[in-house]
Specification:
85 residues, mainly alpha
C-alpha cells in the first residue's frame, strides 16, 4: 500500500514583538473581562491586592495553557495559508 505524500506547509517563524503583543492582548482582555463579570461581586469585598492576586492566579494559567497555544496555531495556519496562496 503506497502512501500519498502530504503537502508540506512552509515553515512559519516565531511571532514578532507586535504580533505577540496583539496575541497576548487578545487572550488577556477577554479572560479578565469574564473573570471580573463572574467573580466581581465576590471580589468587591476584598482589597485591591487580594483582588489582583486572585485574578492573576486564575487568569495566567488560562492564558498561558489554554488560549496562547490556540492563538499560536491560528497564527501559524493564517500565515501558512497566506504563503500558499
Amino acid at each position: 500500500m503506497s502512501q500519498v505524500p502530504q503537502p508540506t506547509r512552509p515553515p512559519v517563524g516565531p511571532p514578532t514583538k507586535h504580533q505577540l503583543a496583539v496575541m497576548i492582548w487578545l487572550a488577556v482582555f477577554p479572560t479578565l473581562l469574564v473573570l471580573n463579570l463572574v467573580l466581581g461581586n465576590w471580589l468587591s469585598t476584598t482589597t485591591p491586592v487580594v483582588r489582583t492576586f486572585v485574578l492573576a492566579t486564575i487568569a495566567v494559567p488560562i492564558v498561558i495553557y489554554g488560549l496562547m497555544p490556540q492563538l499560536h496555531r491560528l497564527r501559524r495556519r493564517l500565515l501558512a495559508s497566506r504563503a500558499t496562496n
